[in-house]
Amino acid sequence: MFFPLADTGSVPAVALGLVVMMTLQGAYLGPQPAVFAELFDTGVRYSGASLSLQLGTILGGGLAPFVATALHGAAGASWPVTIYAVALSAVSLLCVRGLDETYRRDLSRRRQADPVP
Predict the structure, then answer these.
(1) Which residues contact 38 (CB under 8 A, 6 or more apart)?
(2) What angle do CA 68, 23, 103 make, to 5 degrees?
(3) Each residue's pLDDT expressed in tens, for the chain with a length of 117 residues
């Protein structure tokens, strides 16, 4: 993770960590819009994708710095922050693994469980 590299104080190590981190970030941010769009039927796709992205950003991106600061302050080191980031990554991976494949599903039709307006 990045935090142990930052603790070394080595500029080349931090630069290498940033390069690796940004490369991985590009790999998951590229397909993210398509995944969000496929989660929802066409009738609610725009609202569903927007709401899920905004709530995820607020709850994940908004709270994480406060939790990380509290963990670092309590332990006086960055290792709890690293464990926290790894745990969040593991939860995210489990959530992605639980998504349904929509390759052959007709996304324009309503699902059987959806109520008819």
Answers:
(1) 102, 107
(2) 100
(3) 688 888 888 999 999 999 999 999 988 888 888 888 888 888 888 898 899 889 988 988 888 999 999 999 999 989 999 999 999 989 989 988 998 877 777 766 655 555 555
Q: Helical H runs in 1-117? A: 2-8, 11-29, 32-38, 45-56, 62-75, 79-97
- Contact between 3 and 81 under an 8 Å Cβ cutoff? The reply is yes
Q: Please choose, from the candidates 32, 55, 36, 56, the residue with its C-alpha nearest in 3D space to the C-alpha of residue 46.
A: 36
85: its two tokens: 């980031």
Q: Where are the domains of the chain?
A: 31-97
Answering whether pTM is above 0.85, one says: no
Greatest extent of the chain over all pairs of C-alpha atoms, in Å: 61
